[in-house]
Amino acid sequence: MLNDLAARLAPHYSRFRVSERLLLTGHSHQAWPDVALAGQIEAFEDAALEADGKWARAMAKAERVRAGLRGFLGDPAAELALGGSTHELVLRFLSALDLPARPRLVTSDGEFHTLRRQLARLAEEGVEVVRVPARPVETLSARLAAAAGDRTAAVLVSAVLYETARIVPGLGELAAACARRGTELLIDTYHALGVVPFRLPDVESAWVVGGGYKYLQLGEGNCFLRVPPHAAGLRPVVTGWFAEFAELAAERDGTRVRYPRGAARFAGATYDPTSHYRAARVLTFFAEQGLSDTLLRRVSQRQLARLTRRFDAFDAPERVIGRDRDAPLTAFGGFLALRSPHASVLRERLAAQGVLTDSRGDHLRLGAAPYLSDGQLDAAMDALGAEIAALGETRADTAPDGRAASGRRPAGRGTGGGTGPRALTVRRGAPAPGRSAAC
Ligand SMILES: Cc1ncc(COP(=O)(O)O)c(C=O)c1O
């Protein structure tokens, strides 16, 4: 049945031509189903019809988006503030912390650039930022908890690490440890939602950010901040006037800015609602197609197993390209991370063959998606095998002393039994796109 899923889904993605292309960028920007376009047109039509009166309809779309996200968070009552990017929402969160009283933030050195850069800048301003090594990931949660003392305002960490795809275990215990000390915990779920089931009740006291740009196929502008119940008394500095639409909480001091209850406390200001129109359609499509997070996880694990089997059959030397074999596939999120000093060269050469992947530092990342067939995955791996072999001929097989390195055999075709539609889908000479800005 999982085998047939791609055939059933692919026709719904005709605008992205998912059957004709090898989009191994499922971990970064999945294709949007065709209904997404209908959503965008609806946004225009509502604006044309109602002008400024469109906001009631736009707010209904935002509610649909919240409902869909709550489903993926496993909590129908989650309080969610929406925003264009996680960065915007992280700023609102940071602005609610009592940094003068607790001037320390604890994070890992494996965080996506949103946290990395912002926290680095705050460190320049005198905030004490402690970066705990992300490796070994098995003990990351415990080490974060240990680093978070009474002067720590917040711990900020991902549910799945964006470079290595490793799932961070023990977040429930970390949440409990933070709650005991009055430290806030913010979890970035961007690489979890829609591919690794994430359950809010397991981290009841945590703040959670994430978005729809990757596995959920919602496109840009669909990020959220889950506001935990204990945030009711916080006064974020960075909020917008939309925070005044909801019922205002009782404030004794009439001279101060007033805040509403719930997630509206963290609301922003005027935004482009087109994203929500698109997302509302896509979330309904997911529901109609039965694309629950548990099904998506099963599909992803099956596809990951296929990619790793094909990769292992290349038998490439570790120093040329390797993967983390210390943990079972169940310890990984939705992409295959291959470590190689040639990661960006491989990405470029694969793109020139029509196989779209991405690279981050020394990691080449290959992300499948539910609309990709086994044949397409095999074709992509054939191309990778050929490029690894080509690398070996030119330099990777050459040991530092100039002698040929041993322990490798020709990669690619003939290994793993793949018979993908190579002639159809792997195009030599296609333009190599520049490094994607996305993540
Ligand atoms: C783990 C993670 N968090 C967040 C983001 C996105 O951050 P932002 O919404 O601030 O651009 C990405 C990439 O898109 C990511 O990989």
Question: Helix/strand/pairing class, anyone?
Answer: alpha/beta
Strand content: 5-15%
> Which consecutive residue ranges, at least 5 long each, have pLDDT under 50?
394-435
The coarse silhouette is globular
The amount of helix comes to: 25-40%
Would you list the SSEs in sequence order as H and E?
HEHHEHEHEHEHEEEHHEEHEEEHH
- What topology, given as strand order, has the largest sheet? 2-8-7-6-5-3-4
Biggest sheet record? 7 strands, mixed
CATH classification class of the largest domain? Alpha Beta
Rg result: 23 Å
Q: Tell me which ligands are bound.
A: pyridoxal-5'-phosphate
The CATH superfamily of the largest domain appears as: Type I PLP-dependent aspartate aminotransferase-like (Major domain)
CATH architecture type of the largest domain? 3-Layer(aba) Sandwich
Alpha plus pi helix count: 12
Number of structural units classed as domains: 2
Named CATH topology of the largest domain: Aspartate Aminotransferase, domain 2
Terminal Cα separation, in Å?
Answer: 30 Å
